[in-house]
């Protein structure tokens, strides 16, 4: 009996990884074994055994010192238990955050009995429409867009309006409120609460100069919400507002670091996401400055890079399972001519690692002063668990 249970678990994990591989293009890097072990609630030896089967059949390839990569598209898995099929449309520009959402959608498809078909496109115009038409021919009843660049919001809006299938999206776009996976009145509330709490956290640690960094993107709805929460806090507390909105590339971030190096020892930074935080840390390192000795910083999204940076980046954990579950629920509901959206957002969780400078000061008294956020002192790349009720609502 023990052998049978182990074999079943190994087969389940292998099936889930194969479903994930279906959503990735050839050459894409898979998550680390220990991350997949956490995601699939098993030990790393079970993951390693599942991966070996996929290496043997040529689905993936291991590169010593680099990781595990998709070698070829996996064979289609059998249709879900309910015979439902949903297309997932992914842009080629997807980043680390996007891959976490894609993985969560793949996992949700497994749990909800949905046959998930994936297509990768360069843009959301004619190419995306052609892919949507192919999904329709393949029996898909709806589409989901797990991620897209904010600068393509108008392009996505036009695509959703022209698409032959109903589309669920992970972003609130004016005019497409019913297509968002969460209700318009709750979209972004957790991110505003997180920014307010992070400002309070740094203030409680004694910082008088609190800054916000992020992308120079006027169309980014989440950036607007974070800027608003930050501006309200600094105005209310009579602090100087210090925003660094930068373009992509090293030059813009290097220039920001050069401007802010004079604040050494008196600078606490809240980053729009882990990517901008890590870019800023790299820019400051070029100037001989490091966290948390010369400045403190907290990222957002808990992507893989934050766990393995040097030093490990403190960050806000996103409940990707929640996003993936509701993206699929929303898509299937739209296919029935109905609307089903997440009624609430999970509480934000701050993972205190090395860069925010407050590890030794986390106690019950400090937690009581930050009632809108959960705080976890993360020693080993911990991924928090969330109540199942919010996923099953």
> What oligomeric state is this?
single chain
The CATH class of the largest domain, by name, is: Alpha Beta
Radius of gyration, whole Å: 21 Å
Beta-strand content: 15-25%
Q: Globular, elongated, flat, extended or rod-shaped: what is the shape?
A: globular
Trace the largest sheet across and list its strands: 4-3-5-6
Helical residue percent band: 40-55%
Describe the structure.
By secondary structure, the chain is α/β, with parallel strands linked by helices. The protein folds into three domains: 2-70, Orthogonal Bundle (Arc Repressor Mutant, subunit A), CATH 1.10.10; 84-186 and 321-335, Response regulator (Rossmann fold, 3-Layer(aba) Sandwich); 189-318 and 347-392, Response regulator (Rossmann fold), CATH 3.40.50. Helices cover 42% and strands 15% of the residues. The protein contains 14 helices and 13 strands. It has helices spanning 2-22, 33-39, 44-56, 96-112, 126-137, 153-162, 189-204, 221-236, 250-260, 274-286, 304-308, 320-335, 364-368, 388-392; strands at 60-63, 67-70, 84-91, 114-121, 142-145, 167-169, 210-215, 242-246, 268-271, 296-298, 315-317, 349-352, 374-377. The strands form four sheets. It has a four-stranded parallel beta sheet with strand order 4-3-5-6, with helices on both faces. Helix 9 (250-260) crosses helix 10 (274-286). The longest helix is centred in the first third of the chain and has 21 residues, at 2-22. The radius of gyration is 21 Å and the shape is globular. The protein starts with a helix and ends with a helix.
